[in-house]
């Protein structure tokens, strides 16, 4: 009897721990659960504490923690990309680098302008910036977590050796940041990859209509997603600016009321309060738009890019298959190394067919995931916009009633 | 009225002419509430406590409840061509005041006519201590846009004309609301006379008078900073010194607030543009999306964002035209107040100057009497009497202008409170309406989002 309540609190504890968990987590299979239980921001770096709970025998312990930095996540992603076996899958996109530059810049500007504003105004703006910083921080944690969860829930990826090392190995993975040469090399590689893909798509016509259509769709879709993400970002940023400009107005009204010795004093103080409350609501609108709209677009922009990569790998595979066919014909014509050529051709054929099957599954899955995510986030967005607009109306109604009484 | 160089007698003449105003005072006592306080010789020190304005406001409403005058400025038309082009506005007046010939009438006026009207009112009333509502500012950039633009380039010049039209309307209504200025013959002529007014060339920035104005302004600024008044009545002096400080503070705070609201307007306008860009992007995304119901939802999202953009624009315009312009008007009014305070300083200087001249003449007279030159002594006596009269007039003028300023300041305070309350409430109601619109848009979108299958 005494155990009962304990058990239930443990279960509750788990569910309540991460309200922002992504919808891709499979709640029915608890054999490998990964989350980021803590994160520390240090100067330039963010240190994520990756927490794993598992019933799988391959791991040394049922529960353990490691500390990882962003570069190590990227390393893990790159390993997946390299492995031939996974060529037929969509590799979950790596999380974006934690970027606090904007927040830092704003904080610096605020510090420089401290002399020109009142203490209250300065404190308010500082609070706002700190909240912004915290929000950016939470977001980067969430994005790193989603990446790991997708891997943990994938029937094939979760068994990957590198993944296990990432989760378990309690030392640094010695993944040093890329130096200049490597970064340049990286650029060159991705550039040649892109030209490769371009050439491939131009010369290798797909035998399968489905894939041809998907390829064209994804190229277009990715471009539009990229554009929409950028525009959504700019819009939400400006929205935040509008909210923040209420701060100065509120301060100005307070100062006006201070020097006033008439009826206006109380009136203006109330109006200043209204502006302050309105600002908070407006600020939340901006951050909710950012979370539900911009982030969804951003995530699927990356995912669609990963899907594109899958298609190109498949096209390369097709090119190899066609090569193998040609070699076989040549070999048969010369009657030299026929068996080896046959073997190679068979392998290439198998590989290609496997990729096609797997690829089709992955693409269908991508579509389902995408539609579900958009649905959830668009509904959330609309509901939040409504909630905030209603709050504003209520706030203004109350204020107007109080002000008209004066 | 920049010239201080003329000797006192000229001012006295002008003043005598203005005595008509006292008659007008009596005539318009129905609207001019402060008759009770002023009472001919202004019994007792005027205390200007915070009780007084409230009393006056209710009296004001009671006594002029059925008198009204409303001016609208509309239908801007571009006339003329090239550098001589200008905009003419239709000024429509609706009133039930018997002093006007009709109850409803309209005339065409151009911008320089408004400036000319303002100049005339300043000439007549500033010396008396009245606060004269300032006319909208000239704008070289704005006017050049008008002159240079052809039919095709409506955009920014249309915006400029609209801003100007609105500020001209506010200017006329503020002047009309003044119990004395509102029935002034020049003002009435401006509203009523269905003829082109003689061109007010002195208002042009590059005219001879314009340059003189500039000179005088500079000289006066120096004067303003350095002159310290030593008045006979310490309470009065304190009142004026305190008021001057209050006005300065108000000026500073209003300017700051105005700058903050301008920033808000800019950001909101930018937000509108960016929202529109996003809407277009979402529409393109919807076109390329292969899943039908998601595609439809995305296109609906694009539509909602377009409507939101329009809302943002409207809100930004309201931010500007309601809030921003109110603040700007009051900053300009404070300028007019400072002018009238300064005028009082000049009147004081004038009085002191007479006093000094009187003292000199007395000394001279004494000297001449001692040195025994009777004819010159007589001449000196005559002069002493003359200057004594001037000193008396100077003092009277100073007392009058002080009283008048106090009266005007009271009225200003009452109106300021009324204006700010009314306009801020209007602004908040506007804000609320927009939020209610937002609710409608998102409520319409929600089922579309839920319909994604």
From TrEMBL, chain A:
* UniProt-listed Pfam families: PX, Vps5
| Name recorded for this polypeptide | Sorting nexin
Q: What does this protein do?
A: Involved in several stages of intracellular trafficking.
One GO BP annotation of this record: phagosome-lysosome fusion involved in apoptotic cell clearance
Keyword list, A-Z: Coiled coil, Protein transport, Transport
Q: Which Gene3D superfamilies match?
A: Arfaptin homology (AH) domain/BAR domain, Phox-like domain
Organism domain of life: Eukaryota
- Region (Disordered) residue ranges read 1-24
Boundaries of every PX domain copy: 26-173
Q: Which family does it belong to?
A: Belongs to the sorting nexin family.
Q: Which GO terms describe its cellular component?
A: endosome
Q: Which residues form a coiled coil?
A: 314-341, 379-406
The gene designation is SNX6_1
Where composition is biased (Basic and acidic residues), the residues are 14-24
The species this protein belongs to is Cryptotermes secundus
- Under the GO molecular function aspect, what terms does this record hold? phosphatidylinositol binding
Q: Which CDD domains match?
A: BAR_SNX5_6 (cd07621), PX_SNX5_like (cd06892)
InterPro entries according to UniProt: AH/BAR_dom_sf, PX_dom, PX_dom_sf, SNX5/SNX6/SNX32, Vps5_C
């Amino acid at each position: 009897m005494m155990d009962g309540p304990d058990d239930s609190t443990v279960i509750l504890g788990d569910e309540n721990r991460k309200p922002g968990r992504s919808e891709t987590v499979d709640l029915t299979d608890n054999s490998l659960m990964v989350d980021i239980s803590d994160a520390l921001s240090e100067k330039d770096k963010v240190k994520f504490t990756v927490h794993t709970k598992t019933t799988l025998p391959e791991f040394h312990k049922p529960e353990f923690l490691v500390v990882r930095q962003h570069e190590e996540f990227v390393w893990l992603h790159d390993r997946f990309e390299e492995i031939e076996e996974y060529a037929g899958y969509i590799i979950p996109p790596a999380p974006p680098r934690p970027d606090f530059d904007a927040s830092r810049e704003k904080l610096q500007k605020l510090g420089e302008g401290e002399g020109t504003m009142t203490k209250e105004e300065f404190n308010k703006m500082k609070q706002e910036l700190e909240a912004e910083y915290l929000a950016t921080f939470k977001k980067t944690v969430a994005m790193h977590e989603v990446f790991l969860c997708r891997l943990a829930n994938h029937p094939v990826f979760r068994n990957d050796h590198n993944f296990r090392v990432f989760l378990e190995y309690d030392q640094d993975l010695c993944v040093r940041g890329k130096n200049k040469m490597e970064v340049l090399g990286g650029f060159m590689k991705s550039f040649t990859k892109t030209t490769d893909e371009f050439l491939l798509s131009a010369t290798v016509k797909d035998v399968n209509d489905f894939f041809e259509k998907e390829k064209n769709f994804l190229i277009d879709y990715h471009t539009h997603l990229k554009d929409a993400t950028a525009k959504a970002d700019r819009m939400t940023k400006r929205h935040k600016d509008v909210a923040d400009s209420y701060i100065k107005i509120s301060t100005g009204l307070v100062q006006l009321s201070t020097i006033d010795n008439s009826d206006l004093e109380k009136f203006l103080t109330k109006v200043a309060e209204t502006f302050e409350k309105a600002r908070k609501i407006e600020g939340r609108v901006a951050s909710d738009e950012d979370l539900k709209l911009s982030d969804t677009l951003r995530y699927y922009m990356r995912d669609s890019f990963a899907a594109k990569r899958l298609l190109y790998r498949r096209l390369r595979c097709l090119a190899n298959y066609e090569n193998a066919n040609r070699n076989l014909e040549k070999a048969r014509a010369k009657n030299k190394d026929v068996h080896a050529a046959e073997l190679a051709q068979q392998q290439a054929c198998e590989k290609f067919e496997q990729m096609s099957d797997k690829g089709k599954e992955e693409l269908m899955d991508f579509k389902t995931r995408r539609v579900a995510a958009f649905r959830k986030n668009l509904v959330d967005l609309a509901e939040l916009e409504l909630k905030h607009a209603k709050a504003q109306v209520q706030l203004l109604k109350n204020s107007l009633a109080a002000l008209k009484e004066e | 009225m920049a010239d201080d160089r003329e000797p006192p007698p000229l001012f006295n003449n002008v003043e005598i002419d203005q005595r008509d105003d006292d008659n007008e005072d009596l005539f318009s006592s129905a609207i001019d509430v402060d008759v009770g306080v002023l009472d001919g010789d202004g019994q007792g020190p005027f205390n200007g406590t915070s009780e007084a304005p409230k009393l006056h406001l209710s009296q004001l409403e009671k006594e002029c409840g059925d008198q009204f005058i409303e001016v609208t400025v509309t239908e801007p038309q571009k006339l003329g061509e090239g550098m001589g082009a200008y905009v003419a506005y239709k000024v429509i007046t609706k009133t039930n005041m018997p002093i006007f010939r009709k109850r409803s009438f309209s005339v065409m006026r151009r911008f320089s006519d408004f400036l000319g009207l303002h100049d005339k009112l300043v000439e007549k009333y500033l010396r008396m201590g009245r606060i004269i509502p300032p006319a909208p500012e000239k704008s070289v950039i704005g006017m050049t846009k008008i002159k240079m633009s052809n039919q095709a380039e409506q955009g920014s010049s249309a915006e400029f004309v609209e801003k100007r039209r609105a500020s001209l309307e506010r200017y006329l209504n503020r002047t009309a609301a003044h119990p004395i200025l509102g029935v002034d013959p020049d003002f009435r002529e401006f509203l009523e006379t269905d003829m082109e007014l003689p061109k007010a060339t002195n208002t042009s920035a590059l005219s001879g008078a314009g340059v003189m104005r500039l000179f005088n302004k500079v000289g006066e600024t120096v004067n303003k900073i350095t002159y310290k008044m030593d008045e006979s009545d310490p309470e009065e002096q304190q009142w004026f010194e305190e008021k001057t400080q209050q006005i300065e503070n108000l000026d500073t705070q209003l300017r700051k607030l105005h700058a903050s609201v301008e920033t808000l307007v800019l950001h909101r306008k930018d937000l509108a543009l960016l929202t529109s860009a996003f809407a277009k992007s979402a529409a393109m995304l919807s076109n390329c999306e292969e899943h039908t119901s998601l595609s439809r939802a995305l296109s609906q999202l694009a539509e909602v964002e377009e409507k939101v953009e329009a809302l943002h624009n409207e809100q930004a315009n309201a931010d500007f035209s309601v809030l921003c312009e109110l603040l700007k008007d009051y900053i300009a009014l404070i300028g007019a107040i400072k002018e009238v305070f300064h005028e009082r300083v000049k009147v004081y200087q004038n009085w002191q100057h007479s006093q000094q001249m009187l003292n000199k003449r007395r000394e001279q007279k004494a000297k001449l009497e001692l040195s025994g030159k009777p004819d010159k002594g007589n001449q000196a006596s005559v002069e002493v009497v003359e200057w004594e009269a001037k000193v008396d007039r100077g003092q009277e003028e100073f007392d009058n202008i002080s009283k008048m300023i106090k009266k005007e300041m009271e009225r200003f305070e009452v109106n300021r409170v009324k204006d700010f309350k009314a306009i801020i409430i209007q602004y908040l109601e506007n804000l609320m309406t927009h939020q209610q619109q937002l609710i409608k848009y998102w409520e319409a979108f929600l089922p579309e989002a839920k319909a994604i299958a």
